[in-house]
Amino acid sequence: CFIMILQEKIQKKAEGFGKLAPAFIEGAKFALENQWISVDDDLPCNHKELIDREIPTYTLYVLVVYKDGTVFLSRMVKTPNGNWIWLFGVSHWMPIPKLSK
Question: Mapping DSSP to helix (H, G, I), strand (E, B) and coil, where does residue 33 land?
């Protein structure tokens, strides 16, 4: 499963840090657990790099957590009066992570 592979990669990378390995592992764990951004704290429309260049009334797709707990891809839409909205009830979001090479 993806989580197991990621944990194995973190463990392997940590081995190169000697006595600092536990701190590396805790830092990686913290980073993974804190990627989601509450819609109460920030929105994709506040980030210029997340506005669709071809259709500037949309944000790029981001990962979202709907209020029912479902994780999905979604984007915000700018209404004619200039307000940005989600089409469905979103509680948290994060940019789509870049894939490693």
Answer: helix
Q: How many residues does the chain have?
A: 101
CA distances for 12 relative to 2, 16, 21, 40, angstroms: 15, 8, 10, 36
Going 59 to 62 to 65 to 71, the CA torsion angle's sign is: positive
- Distance in angstroms (rounded) separating the CA atoms of residues 20 and 28: 12
Q: Tell me how crowded residue 78 is: count the other CB atoms within 10 A of its CB.
A: 16
Q: Tell me how far apart the alpha carbons of residues 11 and 29 are, in angstroms, rounded to a whole number.
A: 11
pLDDT in tens, the chain (101 residues): 555 677 888 888 899 999 999 998 888 888 877 788 999 999 999 999 999 999 999 999 999 999 888 899 999 999 999 999 998 899 999 998 777 66
Tokens describing residue 73 = 């891809």
Give the up-direction half-sphere exposure of residue 4: CA atoms within 13 A in the CB hemisphere.
1
